[in-house]
Amino acid sequence: MGFRHKDIIALKDLTREEITLLLDTADSLSEINQRDIKKVPTLRGKTVINLFYEASTRTRTSFEIAAKRLSADAVNITASTSSVVKGETLSDTANNLLAMKPDIIVMRHAVSGAHEYLAKRVSCSVINAGDGAHEHPSQGLLDMLTMRQKFGRLDGLKVAIVGDITHSRVARSDIYGLTTMGSHVFLAGPPTMMPVGIERLGNVTVCKDMREAVDQADVVMMLRIQLERQGKTLLPSMREYSRYFGLNPEVLTLAKKNAIVMHPGPINRGVELASSVADCDQSAILTQVENGVAVRMAMLYHVCGGEPVE
Amino acid sequence: MADNTVILDGSGVKRALTRIAHEVLEKNKGVEGLVLVGIRTGGVFLAQELAERLAEIEGVEVPCGAVDITMYRDDIKGHAEHLPVGKTELPFSIQGKKVVLVDDVLFTGRTIRAALDALIDQGRPSCIQLAVLVDRGHRDLPIRADFVGRNVPTSRSENIVVAFDAGNKPTEVILQK
Q1: Is A184 one of the catalytic residues?
Q2: B18 lies within 8 A of chain A by CB
Q3: A16-135+291-304, superfamily in CATH?
Q4: Closest residue of A to B114, CA-based?
Q5: What are the binding residues of A for carbamoyl phosphate?
Q6: Which of A49, A134, A266, B108: disulfide with B140, CB 3.0–4.6 Å?
Q7: C-alpha dist (Å) from residue A136 to A53, A112, A115, B141
Q8: CA angle A101–A131–A145, rounded 5-degree value
Q9: Interface pTM (ipTM) of the complex?
């Protein structure tokens, strides 16, 4: 089976077979990252533009390394150093970039749906590197790859996702991806951060108590409290949040013995994750980062040969 | 319906592989510094068969690895139907080694070109030799095999299939018209 999408905007758009194909490809490509010469000629002559309207270190660097390992030319544009600060619209930016004939635009944007808008207007492939509170497909895929490597399957896994579900694009991509692949997702978080009706997405259970979600979980995914945004308005205090929704060694004992702890980063140590848990043997956080490069290589590889889906 | 002709049956394949094993030993004067690398997927199974033959003849296990050439193909443009990407598994260094590259069918030579690139990215072997079960002609590139199981003149529209059983043992070679 081939991958027939021109763009990757959301995991919601992908079938179980397509997600499996991306994960299988990433799994194979991870071998390249272990070599002395970490480069293959697959995308030689292709141009990838990383267009980042929001700050990012991990995702942007990861996409840049992924493009370079496939021999593509990667160009980075950050909003603060581009004509966006002069008032240029997304549409005009896209047209100007297109005139330079890129093959793939990897974009992060603060507005949900910005990628959909862009993808309809450009002939090159568009990959979503995070849009507002909508989706973050590459993070969702690398999370699933990390889980699959550990357990050998995604079907039937119990995954607890704890934190600010409403504003988390990571949570949304994880939920869509994991439920498509047959996992059961348990959500926990403050009521102010839990979207109404999210259980309608399918194999999703909303828990009142974090302990209920973590109980017998295979994976505990902790989300970052966005201190710069919602942390100030939706929570009484960080201490209280940490007490009820922070993962400490005691809560972790409720999960299965071989459970893994995940976090999309950057971590607020002592808020959502106790420092000792972040660095414990069960922590898969650095494996997630490592898998990020392989997953993004797989995404770049597959969109480059894809066709628009009518 | 496709018209199938069996070019090599099970025993024919075995004889061809045994002869290739002897030729490899003769050309390289033994197994010193020798490694086998199969091209995924059929080549890998044949490389394992050759390794078994070499072990039977010389009593020495020759290291055997696999190379995946998907990321080295020259035809990504316009291809919606990607081949599944496999893993390159070389559990040894090829630096300074005599590499025998193994594939099932030699056709245009583009797969071999890609495999040579993939191998050279892993190190600098002292030499690379090519062993194929079937050479069907129609080369696009100036590539020839050092060891050939069977030369089969074909037309471009025909197809050669090497069949393997559930245990990945080669069972027969079929010409599909």
Answers
A1: no
A2: no
A3: Aspartate/ornithine carbamoyltransferase (3.40.50.1370)
A4: A41
A5: 58-59, 108, 136, 139, 265-266
A6: B108
A7: 14, 10, 11, 44
A8: 90
A9: 0.83
Q: Digits of tens for pLDDT over chain B (177 positions)? A: 568 999 999 999 999 999 999 999 999 999 999 999 999 999 999 999 999 999 999 999 999 999 999 899 887 655 545 567 888 999 999 999 999 999 999 999 999 999 999 999 999 999 999 999 999 999 999 999 999 999 999 999 999 999 999 999 999 999 998
Q: Which residues contact B166 (CB under 8 A, 6 or more apart)?
A: none
CA B133, CA B73: separation in Å to the nearest integer? 21
The residues that bridge with B39 in the sheet, in sequence order, are B67
Contact present, B17 and B8 (Cβ < 8 Å) = no
Same fold for the pair A16-135+291-304 and A137-289: yes
A60 noted as active-site residue: no
Binding-site entries of A for L-aspartate: 86, 169, 224
Q: What is the rounded CA–CA span in Å between residue B115 and residue B42? A: 14
Cβ separation B72–A41 shorter than 8 A = yes
Whether residue B104 lies within 8 A of chain A, CB to CB, comes out as: no
| pTM for this prediction | 0.91
